Amino acid sequence: MLELDWVFEREGFRLEARQQLSAPITGVLGASGAGKSTLLAVIAGLFKPRQGRIRLDGQNLCDTAAGLWVPPHKRHIGLVFQDGQLFPHLKVRNNLLYGYHHLAPEQRRFTLDAIVELLELGPLLERRPGSLSGGEKQRVALGRALLYAPRLLLLDEPLSALDERLKQQILPFFTRIYCECQIPMIYVTHAVSELNAITGCLMEVKDGRLQPL
Amino acid sequence: MLSDYEWAVLALSAKVGIWATLISLIPGVFLGWLLARRDFRGKPVVEALVFMPMVLPPTVPGYLLLVTFGSQGVAGRWLEQTFGLQLAFNWKGAVLAAAVIAFPLMVQAARLAVQMVDRRLEVAASTLGASPFRVWCSVTLPLILPGILIGSIMVFSRSLGEFGATITFVGNIAGETRTLPLAIYTATHQIDGDTQATRLILVCLALAFFSLLISNLLMRRSERWLGVRRA
Question: Burial, B136: exposed, middle or buried (Cβ in 10 Å; 0-12, 13-18, 19+)?
């Protein structure tokens, strides 16, 4: 369970989140510029809230009153961006293993083979990101995040760069990921159609607040 | 093809160029990164100081080096007493002179390269468990390598051509500080020196052409390696 109770402020922009999220997949909607990406950045530890607390499965990740702050690389929270952000100098195989190599052996939950099979990445392993299509890049980015076995997976408009046909191809993977990997997800998008297919738990970022839809 | 004298001039120039490149490398990349990624008090002042050697007549940094690192200078005396290192009128001084003049080129190349790196790649690496140091080593550094390479070739080439600061700081001593441009200058001041000057000028032309050619080939290779250019 993710417990949010914080206020973020920067250059006149304000975002407030006081919610408990416990659904397998939480969908977060909002217009562009509403603060959806900021919400994820604060959860991942890329931005510091001005004041408040973040707890994940009972562990404090941030508590401004106690001066507690866990940096992003120690939070064990995965983040997948709109355009994948694959490392251009590494082959798909090494992109997939990047986070995996940062885990102690006992923290590893999935093997490369299992993830490759789940996301149908076999033919791509020896290729470079520059030669992949948008949908392929997104599947590799997902696989890379999953191999890191995060406690929570944040998805920042993961499909918005893809056309409708590709979206329909990739959407089923998200439910499959939850069923097979048991990793809770927060799925941020401005397209409600993507969320209807995968979750019933919907939230909204509006007027500077995270609130139930 | 070349005489012993010409080989010696060429070898000295190469030695000065390589050392100047090596000592500019780490501080140049660090400063380039700092200027690209960090905002700090006094940043405009640091920028102005770093790029000053590019806009000054090279004799000015040369003279300042002589005053500071010459045998009567504070730093020069200290280096000689502590390490037995003498810079003035010595090839090591020529390295320092060339490095000072060419340093901004390294900083500028590194800075541009760092600015080109998509910061979200670094963010992605940190959310995959990489500490800031690991992010730098495994993402930032590989992605700026082509820029560092270009910077190195520019520093090396600029060092080969360094004249004003060198002759002011370390003089024009055959076999010690007489690099290619100084040897050409010397030849043009000798009676019957025309042939010598022409031969050295041809060496310079060949050197400049091949260093640019090699840098372009290396660039293509590294772009392919980074996936920017298709094979």
Answer: middle
pLDDT at B230 over 60: no
Contact B228 A103 (CB under 8 A): no
Cβ-Cβ contacts under 8 Å, B143 against chain A: 88-89
Asked whether the beta carbons of B122 and B140 are under 8 A apart, the reply is yes
CATH number for the domain spanning A30: value is 3.40.50.300
Number of structural domains chain A divides into: 1
Distances (CA, A) of B83 to A178, B64, B76, B80, B95: 65, 21, 10, 6, 17
What's the pLDDT at B115?
93
For residue A211, give both structure tokens.
């609130």
Structure tokens at A98: 């990047």
Distance, CA of A49 to CA of A210 (rounded, Å): 14
Contact A152, A77 (CB under 8 A): yes
The pLDDT tens digits of the residues spanning A13-53 come to 999 999 999 888 999 998 888 888 899 999 999 999 999 99
- Residue A205's contacts (CB-CB under 8 Å, 6 or more residues apart) are A15, A28, A29, A30, A34, A35, A36, A39, A211
Q: How distant, in Å, are the alpha carbons of A154, A178, B62 from that of A43?
A: 9, 20, 54
CATH number of B4-39+47-226: 1.10.3720.10
Cβ distance of A102 and B225 shorter than 8 Å: no
pTM for this entry: 0.83
Using an 8 Å CB-CB cutoff, list chain B residues near A81: 120, 124
Using a 10 angstrom Cβ sphere, with 0-12 exposed, 13-18 middle and 19 or more buried, the burial of residue B61 is: buried
Tokens of residue B111, six digits: 């800075």
